[in-house]
Amino acid sequence: MIIANPIYDVIFKRLLENDRVAKFLIGTILDCKVISLTPTVIERTKHDKGNGVLTLFRMDFAATIKKETGEEKRVFIEMQKAKHLADITRFREYLGTEYITSTLPIISIYILGFNLTVDSVAFGNFPICRDLRTGESLNSHDPFVEKLTHTAYFVQTKRITPSINTRLDKLLSIFEQANFISGSETTKDYALNIDDPELKETLDILRYAAADSETRKELDEEEYYQRAMRQMFGEQYDKMEKQAQELANAKRETEETKRDFVNELRKLGKSVSEIARIVKLTEAEVEKI
User: Fold this and answer.
1) Mean pLDDT score, 239-247
2) 199: containing domain
């Protein structure tokens, strides 16, 4: 099956404009049932003569979701997609805007066309309430706290490999960046056998987009500008990604050194409280090492 690549703005936007597909996509990533979705902000790729192409795509929703407990909750879902690490600046700018304008708890979903240092295809960053004196996790759902913190989900499309073991795997399979057609990354061959009706509807949209001449024209234009931007700013992007990797490696080495130090203190018979005081961690953090 030949499908359009959903990493492109024109295609990703088309998926999210379909209410059933948008609920399927968001609900699968968040692992919840999406009761309702109302688009609030839509921004596509902009072509700026002075600064090049802004590769960030953003689509926001006011939503009602249903948790496993059966509780229904109103949230603000901020969905962003980017091709380059440099787009982190705009991620922060948009997030700051939402804290000013929205009174709902914020959930961010980031679809990334580049790799982070986290070795996972899809992962979440969930704020945890913790007692500052004891380090104990607190089961807090206070509205005041929820409105001043936010949960984030990250999908790294370059790490996706073919798999249909879970519902999430099936969804992520359409974002796999492989099996491109005719040297272009705008369309690709999708060979997995799918029986999920919601994913079938998603694939129908992608298959139609791949065959539609007007959509193909938009795809070719978007790909042209992306290539142009890579030629103009590729060296800068590579430098930023290299620096990010070096910082991550340095942090990892620091954590390994700390872990070795804690283990040596344990061998010397030091108590958890003594170790915590020496290495300046909470007792709960020492227990985890």
Assistant:
1) 69
2) 2-241
